[in-house]
Amino acid sequence: MKFRDNLLHLRQQRNMTQEQLAMLLGVSRQSVAKWESGQSTPDVDKLMRMADLFDCTLDELVSGDLTQREVDAREVIPEGTPVDDVCGYDVHMRSFALKVATGVAIIIVGFALAALFDALALGSVSEAASPAAFLLCVALGLAFILPAGMAHSSFAKSHPFVEDFYTEKQKAAEQRSFARSITIGIVLIVLGVATAAVADVSSNDLLRESGGAVMLAFIAVGVWLIVHGGIIHGLMDVENYNREREDEKNEYNDPRISRACGIIMLVATALGLLMLFGSMAASDMGNATLTTVCSYFWVVWPIGGILCAIVSVAMRNPEAK
Q1: Does a structural domain hold residue 244?
Q2: Rounded Cα–Cα distance for residues 306 and 310 (Å)
Q3: Pairing with 103, which of 18, 32, 40, 294 sits 20 to 30 Å away (CA)?
Q4: What φ, ψ does residue 81 adopt, rounded to 5°?
Q5: Is 80 domain-assigned?
């Protein structure tokens, strides 16, 4: 009871909300509420951080009586103080958006380069350059995407709750920027398809054969704009970020969901790699149909993600909060 009373007193005396304390400690607002109601107790790491934050010892915080301690006026948060981005959420999310969008675009450029080398018909050079360019772009794209994903996962674990600090003006400006990104991205993709259609009926052999590469180049730029704009637009919805972190916490606490999703994604990865190398083997054998089918190897990962979402919904405990 002493810890609960101490925490409640120290927070309220500083005019600090549960949301603000949660952000400083890297926990959810629900965790702070449970500590103050006596439903749970924080781990030692969080207790030590609170002791530093409130300028007291660990023993005083846990078993002492701090309810009579006066708080320095300089530590009190003034009424009406704008919420600040104390955890670097905006910088992190913008970096995440840039890296993911760039990685996806580079992989699509790999398809474009492979198609271009095939169109140039350089004989043995084309046969070696086409898969080499594609695999190089895939590796480069993954070098952007995978570290960004791991950094985002680490950030989400360290900051499961973020108080919404964006103003309505900022959200309105981002909404307009998102609309522009989506519009320009779709226009570029349509232009790419139109360019390929025009090239397909051209009498120039080189132009006709390279139409697919040009289309993919347009698509790469369009997809970059859409992916980047979509992630930036999503970062403004801080409440959704908090809900996702809470849902992830509930899923991590259910080992059945973790096991099922792990199996699904391992199977998807095995199938994707099999199709990737199968595509190259089929190309060497001259099997155009099999090559085309296997070229869509990347589809297995989005399908795996969708299946994981279905499993999570189906297996989630309806009483989980």
Answers
A1: no
A2: 6
A3: 294
A4: -65, 125
A5: no
